[in-house]
Design brief:
single chain, about 525 residues, alpha/beta, TIM Barrel, 4 domains, eight-stranded parallel β-barrel, about 40% helix, binds 3-methyl-2-oxobutanoic acid, binds zinc ion
Length: about 525
């Protein structure tokens, strides 16, 4: 049995299924590059048949990522598999992941199919996928609630049909660690050709057990774990990649496999990137990537750590890439220093004009903010990529008046489809007034689900990074904006979200409905 644990990241697919976590193609490519730098084995980039946008995003990721295998999800239907095959055409290494539900409740209520029909369709799907690639993964959806004997029959048949990876999902997060570990053990024992495939697991976190279930499966012979950065995912999310990786790395005395190929120092950067793109904040006490994960508050702990780090620390903060956010550049830094630092952060420019544009933004920021930190640079690049997308609307100017005892008001100038418009409004505060002024002009009739501001670095001159989440007719989008002035950052974030909601998008969900 292999001693390497295959890390399969599904942030861009299952992670994106979290309501409100939808990502643009550029955002997906940026996250994929961060995962490639971390050296994850497989990146599930999306569900190509879901929408033209999903197809293009999987294709774009497959076009640029060279070191990780790129995977596309497909239901066990010819049209899905063909679309996934097409999206992965240019991948250096491409995988098709096809699935069909095997639990009684899903087969009867959702698929309205008999078990034998499901088995037949699963085999046909794997054979179809093998026409596009030798690298095929099959998942019996809701395996955690499926009948063991039926599951064994399905797995034996799909392995015979050419599935090199069989993935066992606990789709609804119902299993508990000992039971799930035993399930993997039993499947590996009972399926006659189990040695011909890698066993993978995909656990949801509805009972807070996704990581524990995955690790229990690993102890019972699973050699691939499907996981997401920050545990993002459908409902309560998936197993968190950072927790799986650091648990296996830290407890090498327990696990019979390793994650030595993973560059764990990239974890923190990837976590921040995903959080800033999706607007899903990481709770401070979250394991590995939370702000407090390596902070020692109590005097006794601090004293112990100073005497010997290992008294209270089981991992080194540096191993997950937590370094002090150092001051890197200032207003006198030149283009070369700027380009070099961004390249150290893994950010490359497609063209000289893109570099020039980012450098101009940097100079503007350096005029307002004395010290520029790594996180400022990351935000600056996020901003540039937001504005580089073909947006119909942009912020031209904003003026707010806020005074004790007076009602705040804002005047905003925007450009919509090349035409400038000006509007004003009062509000409960300057941010409220600015957003109301924009809404008065646009009349989007969206509902604001979330408004959050995070300081990117410390200090009162820090940039504020604002996330605005809007909903219209069931569609949810996130807008981002960063500026040293949080009213401007808020207006930018609101406009970014409105731009996204104005784009037509018809999208289907992998686990429901037909396309
Ligand atoms: O949760 C699930 O069952 C899935 C499958 C598509 C693997 O996401
Ligand atoms: Zn899932």
């Amino acid at each position: 049995m292999s001693d390497q644990l295959i890390i399969f990241d599904t942030t861009l697919r299952d992670g994106e299924q979290s309501p409100g976590a939808s990502m643009t193609m550029d955002e997906k490519v940026r996250i994929a590059k961060a995962l490639e730098r971390m050296k994850v084995n497989v990146i599930e980039a999306g569900f190509p048949i879901a929408s033209p946008g999903d197809f293009e995003a999987v294709k774009a990721v497959a076009d640029v990522i060279k070191d990780s295998t790129i995977c596309g999800l497909a239901r066990a239907l010819d049209k899905d598999i063909e679309r996934a095959g097409e999206a992965l055409k240019n991948a250096n290494s491409g995988r098709i992941h096809t699935f069909i539900a095997t639990s009684p409740i899903h087969m009867q209520m959702k698929l309205r199919m008999e078990p034998d029909q499901v088995l037949e369709q699963a085999v046909a799907a794997v054979k179809k996928a093998r026409q596009f690639t030798d690298n095929v993964e099959f998942s019996p959806e809701d395996a955690g609630r499926s009948d063991l004997d039926f599951l064994c029959r399905v797995l034996e048949a799909v392995i015979d049909a050419g599935a090199g990876t069989v993935n066992i999902p606990d789709t609804v997060g119902y299993n508990v660690p000992e039971q799930f570990g035993t399930l993997i053990h039993n499947l590996r024992e009972k399926v006659p050709n189990s040695d011909k495939a890698i066993f993978s697991v995909h656990c949801h976190n509805d009972l807070g057990l996704a990581v524990a279930n995955s690790l229990s499966a690993v102890m019972n012979g699973a050699r691939q774990v499907e996981c997401t950065i920050n545990g993002l995912g459908e409902r309560a999310g998936n197993a968190a990649l950072e927790e799986i990786v650091m648990a296996v790395k830290t407890r090498q005395d327990i696990f019979q496999c390793n994650v030595d190929h993973i560059d764990t120092t990239q974890i923190m950067k990837a976590s921040r990137l995903v959080s800033s793109i999706t607007g899903f904040a990481v709770q401070p006490n979250k394991a590995i990537v939370g702000a407090n994960a390596f902070a020692h508050e109590s005097g006794i702990h601090q004293d112990g750590v100073l005497k010997n780090r290992e008294t209270y620390e089981i991992m080194r903060a540096e191993d997950v890439g937590l370094t002090t956010n150092r001051m890197v550049l200032g207003k006198h830094s030149g283009r070369n220093a700027f380009r070099t630092r961004l390249s150290e952060l893994g950010i490359e420019f497609k063209s000289e004009s893109e570099l020039n544009d980012a450098f101009a933004r940097f100079k503007k920021l350096a005029d307002k903010k004395h010290e520029i930190f790594d996180d400022d640079l990351q935000a600056l690049v996020t901003e540039a990529s937001v504005e580089a997308t073909n947006e119909r609307m942009r912020l031209v100017a904003l003026k707010v008046c806020s005074e004790t005892g007076e009602t705040p008001n804002a005047s905003v100038t925007i450009e919509l489809d090349g035409v400038e418009q000006e509007g004003s409004s009062e509000g409960g505060g300057p941010v409220d007034a600015a957003l109301k002024a924009i809404e008065k002009m646009i009349g989007s009739n969206t509902e604001l689900l979330l408004y959050s501001v995070n300081n990117i670095t410390s200090g009162t001159d820090s940039q504020g990074e604002v996330t605005v989440r809007l909903e219209k007719g069931g569609r949810i989008v996130n807008g981002l904006g960063a500026d040293t002035d949080i009213v401007i950052a808020s207006a930018k974030a609101y406009i970014n979200a409105l731009n996204k909601i104005m784009e037509p998008e018809e999208r289907s969900h992998p686990q429901t409905g037909d396309v």
